[in-house]
Amino acid sequence: MTYQWDWEVFLRDDGGGRSYLEWMLSSWGWTLSVAVLAWIIALVFGSLIGTLRTVPQTGLRRLGDVWVEVFRNVPLLVQIFLWYHVIPAIIPAFKGLPSFALVVFALGLFTSARIAEQVRAGIQALSRGQGMAGQALGLTLAQTYRHVLLPMALRIIVPPLTSESMNIIKNSSVAFAVSVGELTLFAMQAQEETSRGIEVYLAVTSLYMVSAFAVNRLMAWIEQRVRMPGMIGGER
Amino acid sequence: MKKLCLFSAALALGAVIAVPACAQQGGTLKKFKDSGRAVMGTRDSSAPLAYTLGGGQYTGYHVEMCQKILDTIKKQIGAPNLKVEYTLVTSQNRIPLVENGTVDIECGSTTNSAARQKQVAFGLTTYVTEVRMAVRANSGLTSINQLNGKSLVTTTGTTSVQTLRKHERGANVNFKEIYGKDHSDSFLLLESGRADAFVMDDNILAGNIANSKNPKDFIITGEVLSVEPIAVMFRRDDAEFKKAVDDAIRGMMKSGELDKLYAKWFQSPIPPRNSNLNMPMGATLKALIANPNDKPMEDYAKK
Fold first, then answer.
1. Quick one: which of B104, B36, B32 has its CA closest to B66?
2. Residue B109 falls inside a structural domain
3. Are residues B113 and B240 in the same domain?
4. Most buried one in A36, A53, A142, B195, CB count within 10 A?
5. Can you list the domains of chain A with their CATH numbers?
6. Longest Cα–Cα distance in chain A
């Protein structure tokens, strides 16, 4: 009793005038949009907060601490529900936003806490002499970070940043819970309608793997390009 | 073949995919006698057909009907100590769980359709539902065609999703569709104002409205998008079990027990809020009780 494969299910009309294949590709587009926009937010806020956690001013450090603890200690799905159900009720300005925007915020800020920790680790991995040398040259704190510390720290953390980028592609799947039409939502609904769960889930899985792997290769290329001789991972 | 069954059962664990061709060896009745337990799949917010009262207690029209069916089957196969276990299923996983044998009989609000009959079997139709929409009473909406540009919520994994898609294309109405992950989530979206209408089987709409904070704020309105027969679901290729279930249902129909059950759940106060859905039995269901059948929803659409 072997399983009867039916890959032609993807060419069937789903009742709305398009084939399941078209629907799947459009859902893939949504997945990538959520992931990319959340990634941008995560990078911007993550680098900022990670840097703040290493500055000498206590007030700024506390701000960074609070940010990271808040967004790291709550599960992602719970955060998404908070953004979707609770925050629009408390802050009326958010009521008009589409669920796509809310998911991008939720996913972006969740990931920003993780990136902040990685940036902090990268900065603290540098020897203290670097910061002192910068200041001895007459650079302000901001200039020391901008010209001396951050360029090196960010190069160091490219490998964990690669994992984080791949994670954000996979984490975008929780957007289904707030009705963003991405791949996981497609998989669940198409599986129910066509009764061909195995084909649908295999196709969706391979799309996720392709996306994550493409991100992996992109980050590897970036790592190659920004490599500096003498640094960790640099040419000998 | 048994190895293939074990392997595919292992695959199905943790995922929601099942190998359809892997039927339980020996039939469900034999399984009841051997293991001494029957697993009933039920829902948590499909009032009044099947819903939870909290604390692992499930109740409802179909749940009670299934309890009576299992009582009849107990006597029939001579297993008076058959223990019934209740498992929560969702619109998403109910068919895979029945297919792979985790759930023996699913008593919820599953529509009998030709597509689903390729994977599972259904009992005689015991409820007929019409897909309509619930809106806020003060919204003034009376038809789905007035929803141009508005948003509409329905639950993922239900037949209503496809019904809406076909309707949107046919009637040329452009509405925004939101998918709730289950019926209570969908109703919450209507309640909070994110959606202007909730499209679902009328009994689920009535049940959720009755259980809400302010039932008077909502009304069920709009044209009937689809007429669907609802029945209990169990695994395919088990003619013995189907006959046992169908006989039990037929018995209840003839003796008037099903009518009493219907009146209890649809026309009297029901837990948890003692609200009365006030839905008298429609002509289709009355005709079915007189002449039971298990025709799929596609046959109803042709009328």
1. B104
2. yes
3. yes
4. B195
5. 7-226 (1.10.3720.10)
6. 78
Return the amino acid letter for B96. P
Q: Residues B120, B134: one domain? A: no
Tell me the CA distances in angstroms from A192 to A35, B96, B226, B285, one per residue in order.
26, 10, 18, 26
Instruction: Determine contact, residues B30/B23, Cβ cutoff 8 Å.
Output: no
Other CB atoms within a 10 A radius of the CB of residue B180 amount to 24
The burial of A8, by beta-carbon neighbours within 10 Å (0-12 exposed, 13-18 middle, 19 or more buried), is given as exposed
Instruction: Note the pLDDT tens digit of each residue in B32-48.
Output: 888 889 999 999 888 88
Q: Are residues B82 and B135 in the same domain?
A: no
Q: Are residues B45 and B102 in the same domain?
A: yes
Boundary-marking domain end, from B227, B247, B262:
B227
Of A173, A139, A150, A192, which is closest to residue A48 (Cα–Cα)?
A150
Is the CB of B4 less than 8 angstroms away from the CB of A1?
Answer: yes
Does A188 contact B156 at a Cβ distance shorter than 8 Å?
yes
Q: How many other CB atoms are found less than 10 A from the CB of residue B302?
A: 5
Regarding whether B124 and B26 lie in a shared domain, the answer is yes
How many angstroms separate the CA atoms of A135 and B109, rounded?
71
- Regarding whether B255 and B118 lie in a shared domain, the answer is yes
ipTM field: 0.71
Q: What is the pLDDT of residues B143-174, one digit of tens each?
A: 888 888 888 999 987 888 888 888 877 777 88
Residues in B closer than 8 angstroms to A192, CB to CB, are 91-92, 95, 156-158
B295 is a domain residue: yes
Residue ranges making up the domain that contains B199:
130-227
Dist CA A190 CA A222 (whole Å): 37
How confident is the prediction for chain B on average, in pLDDT?
Answer: 85
Same domain as B174, residue B43 = no
- Residue B185 falls within a domain, yes or no? yes
Interface test with A, best of B169, B233, B236, B297 (most A CBs within 10 A): B169
Interface of B with A in 77-136 (CB under 8 A): 91-92, 95-96, 115-116, 118-119
Q: How many domains does chain B have?
A: 2
B150 interfaces chain A, CB cutoff of 8 Å: no
Model pLDDT for residues B58-72, shown as the tens digit of each residue: 999 999 999 999 999
CB pairs under 8 A between A and B: 70
pLDDT for residue B1 is more than 70:
no
Indicate yes or no: pTM above 0.80.
no
